[in-house]
């Protein structure tokens, strides 16, 4: 029996968090790892920090003009070829515009706010073999959308890291419209990482908390507004102003009135304990490879970033600038309650 099978809660490292009271379609439920893939191999990938794939929905087009502009953008005004569902290469601005016109002409929308296409970016860190990444993106698109939805994609290699812009036609051949949920994005990340590994590219698709990260990534519109504000070119985003006000209140000794943040920090402590238990179990194994992996797991936990939220980071920054608040402790995660026996 694998040492990992003896660790209670090991599977929870990969499992998404179930949220009660939500529609089933909105609850993220990760698919199981690909068949034949060993959990130990996945653990090794994570603790040895295999590159994480990025699969992101960047927007939707709402009309023919918007669709045409997006296809022109991802094809660099026809300079880059767009590859279609059947493997055809669309080269030149005229071919790109014809594709957009075809999608728009056949899209008989019953709602004015329905999208014509969904824009997706598949990305990997700098240094990734872009030829293999393009092949993985092709396989991902064919398996994910090829049966029901038309699509076109283009590879970009001029932005410091290779990424693929994938435009998927919303209206499917079955008459249904593509409306991806959070669960779909998680499944897409898993599938894209699998296609990369099949082509010899180290890649993983894990949850933030699995990697010791508690702070959510800043949303692109908020980030752009914040950057403009920091350059003196616009007002501060309202959500950022509200965060500063609350952080200032907490820095002066106010109470934490957001219990879910405390749950996030407590959950991260539980993740670290699970990794520690995994390291102990592997360390007792007679297999030298298991013992080596145990050392890697221990090193991974020691180098995890300190649990943080945006609010706590702002509190620390405010206290660094205002000496009168430095002695006040930041809100901490609650201690685990003893389990009932």
Automatic annotation (TrEMBL):
What is the name of the protein in this document?
A: MobA/VirD2-like nuclease domain-containing protein
**Residue stretches making up the MobA/VirD2-like nuclease domain:** 106-200
Task: Tell me the domain of life.
Answer: Bacteria
Q: Which UniProt keywords apply?
A: Plasmid
Segments of this protein annotated with the region Disordered: 318-341
Database matches in InterPro entries: Endonuclease_MobA/VirD2 (IPR005094)
């Amino acid at each position: 029996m694998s040492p990992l099978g003896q660790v209670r809660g090991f599977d929870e490292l990969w499992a998404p968090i179930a949220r009660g009271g939500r529609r089933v379609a909105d609850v993220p439920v990760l698919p199981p790892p690909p068949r034949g893939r060993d959990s130990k191999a996945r653990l090794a990938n994570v603790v040895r920090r295999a590159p994480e794939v990025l699969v992101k929905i960047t927007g939707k087009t709402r009309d023919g003009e918007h669709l045409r502009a997006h296809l022109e953008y991802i094809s660099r005004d026809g300079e880059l070829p767009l590859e279609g569902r059947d493997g055809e290469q669309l080269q030149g601005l005229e071919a790109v515009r014809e594709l957009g016109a075809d999608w728009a002409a056949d899209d008989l929308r019953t709602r004015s706010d329905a999208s014509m296409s969904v824009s997706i970016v598949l990305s990997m860190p700098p240094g990734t073999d872009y030829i293999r990444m393009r092949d993985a993106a092709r396989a991902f698109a064919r398996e994910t959308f090829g049966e029901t939805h038309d699509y076109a994609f283009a590879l970009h290699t001029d932005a410091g890291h290779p990424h693929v812009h994938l435009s998927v036609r919303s209206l499917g051949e079955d008459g249904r419209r593509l409306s991806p949920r959070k669960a779909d994005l998680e499944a897409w990340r898993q599938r894209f990482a699998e296609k990369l590994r099949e082509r010899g590219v180290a890649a993983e698709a894990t949850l933030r908390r699995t990697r010791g990260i508690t702070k959510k990534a800043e949303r692109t519109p908020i980030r752009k507004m914040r950057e403009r504000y920091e350059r003196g070119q616009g007002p501060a985003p309202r959500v950022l102003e509200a965060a500063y006000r609350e952080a200032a209140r907490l820095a002066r000794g106010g109470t934490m009135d957001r219990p879910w943040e405390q749950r996030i920090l407590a959950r991260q402590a539980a993740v670290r304990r699970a990794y520690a238990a995994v390291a102990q179990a592997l360390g007792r194994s007679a297999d030298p490879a298991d013992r080596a992996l145990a050392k890697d797991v221990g090193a991974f936990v020691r180098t995890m970033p300190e649990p943080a939220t945006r609010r706590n980071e702002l509190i620390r920054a405010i206290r660094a600038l205002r000496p009168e608040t430095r002695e006040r402790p930041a809100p901490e995660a609650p201690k685990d309650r003893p389990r009932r026996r």
